[in-house]
Amino acid sequence: MTAPTTRPVPGPATTMSGALLPVMPLPQGELLTVNTEQSPLIRDSLGPGVHFKPLRLDLERGEWVVLATFAPGTSIPPHYHTGTVDGYTLSGCWYYSEYPDQPQTAGSYLYEPGASAHSLTCPATNTEDTVVLFSITGANVNFNEDGSFHSVLDAALIAHPTGALSEAQDLGPINYITGGFAGYTVEEV
């Protein structure tokens, strides 16, 4: 038998003056927020020069939000996205090898539709790390340069190295926002 999980229940809400709102929001005792300045950088996570800070990993919805940092000269092998990607470049420069004439620099926002495939490259001539906020739905199916299958990267597979590498790098527990937890509303009989 599985014990029911305590879940927030929607209820009436009011304005600061006490006026009733015509909606039933979930009760929220605090804002769900992660300060990236207080989160350690998990180094060399997916290879040398590829670092990240997890911000939100929702294993059930297959959504992952990370602050990725790439050292100059770093590249990510060819990969296929099963879902969409939003990317906002905070510093540095990167591009997809397939689109070298469209570099992403500080202030660039990029949207990738599902089923896109490409290889990420940070020029070796970069004078600073490249930092990108990625919000990804689904998985990256990664390939070797010869086109053979390499691996799959998704929210669950980001959660694993987050725990393993934070322990190996002596970073302590890493704080990030998680998704809901699937279960039953009534205990099974």
N- to C-terminal distance:
7 Å
Main sheet attributes: strand count, strand direction, barrel closure: 6 strands, mixed
Strand numbers in spatial order across the main sheet: 7-4-9-2-1-12
Overall strand count: 12
Instruction: Tell me the β content.
Output: 25-35%
Helix % is: under 10%
The total of helices stands at 1
Describe it for me?
With 189 residues, the chain is mainly β. Helices cover 7% and strands 34% of the residues. It contains 1 helix and 12 strands. It has one helix spanning 155-168; strands at residues 50-58, 63-70, 75-81, 85-91, 93-96, 104-105, 109-112, 117-121, 130-137, 140-143, 149-153, 177-178. Strands 7-4-9-2-1-12 form a 6-stranded mixed sheet, with helices on one face. The longest helix has 14 residues, at 155-168. It is globular, with a radius of gyration of 20 Å.
